[in-house]
Amino acid sequence: MIKTNYLDQFIKDIDQMIGDVNRYFYYLEEAELNAQPKEGSWSILQCMEHLNLTNYFYVKQLKKKVGSSPEARYEEPVSMTWRGRLLTRTMEPRQGKVRFKMPTLKMLTPQNALNKEHRLLERVVFQNWMDDMTELKRIIEEGRHKKVGPIRIKTFFGPLVKLGFLDAISFALAHNKRHILQGQKALENIRG
User: For the whole model, what pTM was predicted?
Assistant: First the structure.
C-alpha cells in the first residue's frame, strides 16, 4: 500500500472517532461522564483524559519530526513495519472487544484516578482531545508532502522501541479506538 492510502485511512479513522465521541459522550451529564462502572475501572472522562496524556506525547513528537522533514519530490514507498503492525494489532479492539489487557503507566493514569480530590473538567478534557485529533489530521496532511521514511518516534515501551511515521500514527489511533470503546462499555454498564 502506498503512503497516500495509509494517510487516507488514518483521516477516515479520526473522523469516525470524532463522530463516536460526539455521539456517545460529548453531550452526557457530568454524573455519567464521571461514573465508574465498578471499583477500580475508569469512567468515560478518565478514559478520555488518559488519551489526552498519551496523544500529547505522540502528537508533539510527530509535529516536530514532520515539520523538520524535507519536502518529498515524489510519492515515497513507505509502509508499516512488522513491529508497527504487531503493536497496532495488540492495541486495536476487534469486533467490539479489547483482546489484550495492558497495564497503564502511572504517569499516564488520570490524576483523579490517583487522587479522588482531583477533578477533571469535562469541557477541557474533550476540547484537548479534539485539539489533538485536529492537530493529528493536520500532521497527516503535512506528511503527504514530506519525506517521512526516516522519521522515528519514541514510545512508552522504552528507548529501544521507536516507531516510524505510519507505525506511530497507526498505533496512536488504535490506542484511541481502544479507550473510546472502553468508554462506550462504561456507559453501557452504568446505564444498565
Answer: 0.94
Count CB atoms within 10 A of the CB of residue 151.
Answer: 23
C-alpha of 103 from chain center: 16
> Contact 133/49 with Cβ under 8 angstroms?
no
In degrees and rounded to multiples of 5, residue 75 shows phi and psi of -70, 105
DSSP symbols for 18-66: HHHHIIIIIT--HHHHH--SSTTSPPHHHHHHHHHHHHHHHHHHHHHHH
Asked if 55 and 129 count as a contact pair (C-beta separation under 8 A), the reply is yes
- Closest by CA to 78, choosing from 182, 163, 180, 173, is 163
CB atoms inside a 10 Å sphere around CB 166: 25
Q: What is the mean pLDDT of each run of 10 residues along the chain (192 residues)?
A: 89 98 94 92 96 97 96 84 93 90 88 84 95 98 94 91 96 98 95 84
Q: Which residue has the cell 497527516?
A: 140
Q: What whole-number distance in Å separates Cα of residue 132 and Cα of residue 9?
A: 17
